[in-house]
Amino acid sequence: MVGSRDSWDAGALPSLAGRTYLVTGATSGLGYFSAEQLAGAGAHVILSGRNVNRLTAARAAIGRRVPGASLESMIIDVTKGSVVRSAAASLSSHERLDGVIFNAGIVHPPRKREEVDGHEVVLTTNVLGHFALAAGLLPTLAKSGRDYGTGRMVWLGSVSTVSWKTNAIDPELKENYSGPRAYVQSKFMVQALASEAQRRLDEADVAVESVIAHPGYSLSGRTNAVAGVNEVRRLKRFFANLQAPVTQSKEAGAASQVRALIDPLVKGGDLVGPSRTFTGPPRIYPADKVTKLTERSRLPEVGREVWQFCESATRTTWPFAASRAPRV
Length: 328
Prior knowledge:
- Strands 3-2-1-4-7-8-11-12 form an eight-stranded mixed β-sheet, sandwiched between helices. It has a two-stranded antiparallel sheet with strand order 5-6.
- It is α/β, with parallel strands linked by helices and 328 residues long.
- 40% of the residues lie in helices and 14% in strands.
- It has one domain (20-321): 3-Layer(aba) Sandwich (Rossmann fold).
């Protein structure tokens, strides 16, 4: 339901019939519930993940809970550059792609530093894979932006970035690795990419919007059970419920990224997150309003540094010129 910047009813979404959205990491958690909400509003949803069995389970669960849901599945392992490029090429054949939620990621990093595809694993999963995927999807999103006014990419930030007290980044963390540092830095970089993407999209006059969303403090243990998708042990649910005053369910957290994806009140560069920071219905924080969450990651010099690193690390350049065309 479209209302004001401060109100949103996830149970009364506007009709999304005819629209197509991609959700990465849609096999569980925030990704699954985002896909379910979009499907419930009539959208065609492309569920992506790296495990075929989990994709099958997620698709079956949405089918049970949303009769008549329009779904397709696609294997996308964002840690594999060749897979990302192949997926983007395949998606270019779709008549339209109205938006994508870059949700896949590592929430619980390994204790010791690991690498995949030549880079630190949290960096590769949370940042580099989606940077490369966004580049591959840009022409397809731009076509929908020009034809339907709906091209939008949503990057998943985190409330944890309020603890990031420096503008400097050390992407690979070869000397000072820790799991929490790797996670928070990756989310700081994602937010910087989202802001920098909007600046470059505006400069190139590409009809795509880049938006940041964060889910607050959303726990599986406070989320309804979904067979094959969210099956939480009693002890974990018990401890999650002890944190009830400052936590919410994954369904509630997913509402932020869904609003960021579909609400026409949201503009490129905006942040969408819970109204009470950790919990609550999603509200819009305009790009021109400084928040503790994004005050550092929005800085142009930070965005340029992160962008240049990602271009070099992925050997990927966004095709702005090929995506440019007069807006309708």
